[in-house]
Design a protein that fits this description.
globular, 129 residues, six-stranded mixed barrel, single chain, 10 strands, 2 helices
């Protein structure tokens, strides 16, 4: 499934992936998020997006950043549409762009054409693979 694109940001490239997230009202909403293989969790969203979805807080999480500093993020429960199935995940509140991490990408094959306007394809790894 092609569900993303590579875009140029100055001289850098950023990977964007389209998924859907469900609000507390059950409404399915499109979400465009960056893909970050260095982020070990499921997903980050801004406080505004979390409030707009009406997500329920589930506590806080301690995380170590790439520079070895430790930060705490508020955590929320959410459902996303992942290959046609509703999947409950943990969302971390961060005022950066929405970011998909490795917990959501686990057990999937990812193909990235790392050029401007390149495609991003994600598909589940099956026993036949």
């Amino acid at each position: 499934m092609d569900q993303g694109v590579v875009a140029s940001l100055g001289e850098s490239l950023r990977i964007y992936v389209n998924i859907a997230i469900y609000g507390i009202d059950g409404q399915r909403r499109p979400l465009r998020a960056t893909l970050d293989t260095g982020f070990t969790e499921f997903l980050t969203l801004s406080g505004r997006a979390i409030d707009g979805l009406g997500l329920r807080q589930a506590g806080s999480s301690r995380m170590e950043l790439g520079d070895s500093s430790v930060v705490y993020f508020e955590s929320y429960l959410a459902n996303v549409d992942w290959f046609g199935e509703r999947r409950q995940i943990t969302v971390h509140r961060s005022e950066s762009v929405p970011t998909i991490g490795m917990k959501l990408l686990a057990h999937n094959d990812i193909h990235i054409r790392a050029i401007h306007n390149g495609t991003v394809s994600i598909k589940p790894i099956t026993n036949e693979d």
